[in-house]
User: Fold these one by one.
Assistant:
Number 1:
Amino acid sequence: MLYGNVARGFKPGGFNANELIDFAGQGYLPEFLDAYEVGFKTYWRDLRLVLDGAAFYNDYTDQQIGVQLNQTGAGDTIVAIPGITNAGQVDSRGFEVAANWRPTDRFNFNLAYAYTDATFEEYVQGPSPTAGPDSFALCGVPEGQTSSPQIRAEAGNACADFSGNGVPKNPKHAFNFGALYRAPFGDKGNTWFIELMGQYRSKRFLSEDNLAWMPSYTNYDLQVGLDFDRFSVIGFVTNLTDDDTIRSAQRNVDPGSPEGFAPGRAVIAYLPEPRVAGVRFIYRFERF
């Protein structure tokens, strides 16, 4: 089967809600996504092979991004607030392929690979809060949409322009695989099985500045079990190699390192679950 698909997504705009009562410069635009995909789904009977593939292109307009904004408060003080701003354009393109091969009644293999290139084609947070109207016009953002000195330093320019950088938390390469062997156990239709599963993810940028990233990792899980008519007994080991590579992290603030009114930058990184071994018992109730 060959197919193509075109779709549009919509997310409404709004205003950043905070302690300030002046809504000027705190609105953000609705987000639109135009998604295009073409692909194929095939079954090769003689090879006992299922092979699927697709190529996609996602075009975001005014994508809503969570940021730290500096706004003018009472007495012309600069107040740091969390908020949402719009990235003018974000493009995500790539392809994916998936295969399931069953060479015999006892063996089953599956593979899946995805390549994704996601880029901020246009993303400007804004100049200093004290910048004049000409600076906002030069940066191409509404007057009042500003950034902190730290954000501008991370961007390396006065407009806090991150255009051309990769979208955070997005692995360029993702790979899943599995191998299953299942055989009869006794002569009453019961079976035993052993299955190995794995996942690979390439490095992922932590934020829009692309200055920090999480490293690539590979994870393996193993399970062995017995399947009877009404119940199953399964032994399992997750994170088989006890890999401790950081897989999840988020940018945060560091109260111990203030930047004027606003705290400095910090990163919270989460260790993965260690190797865990156990046994599962599953009972299937009779359907009435």
Number 2:
Amino acid sequence: MSSFKKKSRTILVLSAVFSAALFHGTALPQQSEIEFLKRQLGEMQKQMQKMVERIEQLEREKAADKTSEPPPQVQSAPGGTPKPGTVAGVSSAFNPAISVNGLFLGGFSSSPRTTNRLTGLDFHNGFNFQEAEFQFTADVDPYWKANFILAIDRGGETELEEGYVTSEQLPYDLLPRNTSLKLGKFFAGFGKHNLLHAHQFPFIDQPLVSQSAFGSEGLKEPGVSLAYLLPSSWFSELTFQGVAGENESLFRFSEDAKRRGAYLGHWKNFFDLSDSTTLEVGNSYLAGRNSDSRHRLSQAVGLDVTLKWRPLQMATERALIWQSEYMYFTRDRGREPFTRGGGMYSSLQYQFARRWWIQGRYDLLGVPKFDDGRKHRWSTLLAFVPSEFSAIRLQHSYTTQERGSPVNQLLLQLNFTIGSHPAHQY
């Protein structure tokens, strides 16, 4: 060990001894001052430890530069796998983080065809492979981060679910402060539920109003997104997005149709009500030309509210989430009547033990009007969650229709993830 390294460690030890002597030999008048000094001491020790580690790293690099030996050959373990710490191991640091999510679904519905139409599930009575997602995430450079998600459905067809790059800083200050940029194909920032992939759904199926407005695939479009964090005392973010307008349900897009584009705005406000409770309120608006002969206007407006409670003392065992969302959408069809619809859902999720959740959701479609009549849906769910990488969920739903027979549905789902597990939407 060099003298410089020894001196650094000596300074670290002396600073700890001196600070300890200060606390034992001085009577501070207030407990808050004692806690403040303790925190300062801890931060100083952490900084000194980082300095020592950095010195050791520089010395190793300097010693490596002085050697004139040829670069080491790649050594392989039995079977041809490179050993950790070899040249190949260093290059693996630039590989993307990879994760795979699988969904297996079984159950019974009194009308599978109606279940698929109302919820977007490709469901058949019995056992089903629902979906698999492959996610690849990596930093492109200091300015861009890339995220690609491939989805494989029960028929074996592969689709680019999302593929985009994001940035919060560009050279020469091209991107203003507190601004983030997204380019590619992504789920549009309309409301709360539309941002989620199938394995992230709070319930096994999506709400009735989401399926009615955007279809089973949701509102995911190629485009550009710009988000700006407002200079307020609470979290307040404005998002503007320009997208292609390819949604089959809202814009009636088809392969031979000409895209006219659409524009979206979302305003999210996030409040800390206490150390254990948060409130989020969002507003969304979307407008674009549909693919009818005269390219008339399609619009959607939404309001979402989410309240979350998780006590600090029992953060792994207790939680409560209340989420509600309302959407209203229209599509102008010229001389024909408007295609219009409105609806909402409200759900409660309660964690009553470390690995157990109980949940309920109410859906109402047809407020104030819906072309296909009013529908009500009640859903209950019990979830066993061994870890953040797996969950077994049992859900029962009962749907009544103004123009149709009631539908009973019982679903059992296995949801699991392997690999580098990215964080979900909060």
Number 3:
Amino acid sequence: MFEGSNILVTGGTGSWGQELTRSLLLHKPKQIRIFSRNEYAQVQMQRSFQYDGALKFIIGDVRDYEAVQEACRDVDFVFHLAALKHVPICEWQPQEALKTNVLGTENVIRASVHHGVKKVMDVSTDKAVDPINFYGMTKALGEKLMIRANDFSDRTRFVCIRGGNVLGTNGSVVPFFKKQIADGQDVTITSKQMTRFFLTLSDAIALLLNAARVSIGGEMFVMKMNACRILDLAEVLGESMTGQPIRIKEIGIRPGEKLHEVLVSSNESPQTYLYGSEYFVILPNLPSQALDQHYNRFARVSFHQYESNQSMMLRSEIAKLLQRGGFLP
């Protein structure tokens, strides 16, 4: 699918972008364009990829339509990863989250349609489901824009994936906990009851690439994920690192945080299908005839909604997940 193609990755210097780029290079594309606004991050990525000739680095911001349009020229596939994603920051500066997560997504859609891109893959989040924070609201709007964009072009197909918390990405909780433990500090958690969905970065990229390969446009792919209490995650990490129980300090839920997250809502479950053993596919309320015919052969899900406090991992399973993610030996 990707061999000999031109690929654009927005937000390509982030954790997702770098892992995606490593995977895409195995498919021998003609060129991968790394589009981001951080000059230093691009220099670091160039060095870590040993100045691979298939990579082209473009300074730009998804908020700038002209920059996005130029980056999309002669592109076959777009992976839209650029976003402001830190929940409290988006609460405190909602206008900035709106510019990047909504207007930036609209710019990607317009530029992709203009240049006849074959397929656009958008990365969303569980926080877009029944959102209570501004970040989740912007990502929910981004999902709606992407799915609706399939009506604007006969050539360009738009697909979303929705994931949980990816272990070890920039700003994520595991590296933060590890530093606190290594420094001998109390490990700070917002609530001892809080639960979250987790997956490894390699799992997240597998979801993204599989969805890119099999999607027909207009659907949302969700990976089946186990969840855990943040408290259990912190204690498993701490006991594995130190060999003894760690001190936990509860600091209270931050602005915009939920106690539990939802990956598939009760409103979406009637349009959600089992896709193999690892994925769910959510169709829009009014799917196209092509979507309806393609997915009607799959079984619908039986759950009311898919929430993080329903199927939680044992501590031994958390340890295995941390090992797979490279955070425990």
Number 4:
Amino acid sequence: MMKWRIIKHETHHPHMNVALEEAIIESVTEGGPPTIRFYEWDPSSVVIGYFQNIHDEVDLQKCDELGIHCVRRITGGGATLLDKDRELTYSVYAPADLLTRDITKSYKIVCGWLINSLAHIGIEAEFKPINDVIVNGKKISGTAATLRRGVLLVHGTLLYDLDLRKMFSVLKVGQEKISDKFIAAVEERVTCVRHHKDINKEEVKRALIEGFTEGKDFYFGSLSEKELQHARYLVKSKFATREWNLRR
């Protein structure tokens, strides 16, 4: 069985991050190693699901004012703000036969690795179907997935810190979003690492690596030049284009 390639925390432009998803899927399709990638976003970005209409979901003018980018990913699901100071993101790329061909089951498997990671820093979490991880009944992580040419991509974000007012200033959720009552209601459903542990980001990054690699045969690697070149091509031809991001 092939060893897992672990790519430690990197920071990329939003267009590059979404392009790398497709480039690494292609690499695994061609026989490259199953890969777990940890990464962050700079600048911050609203990432919308494949099937969403950007104008329905995002206040593009507010994004411009705050210097926040907006990109479309290749998986479904809802829009989310990936704040460079408050989010940690992971992606798992593997032949489906190595994990499962059932996307619903894949959520439980990969979320289990995240739950292990949180346990390393003393946070007790649990899986909430279909694709969330919760702490004390509040969502701390969401995931999305796609199966392409026999390769499974499961990716998700871990909320390290939380700025709900910033989040809902760029996501269109109705006029009530500016009210204290609305923010308080969301706070009843969403949480973050910092609400449970006074811990720095670097410690959380180490815990993620520990939790995701537990029980696996793995090595620490890096993106290949072929993957990087392919991703750069995809940025220019697809992920940075208006046709892709404004397509629906």
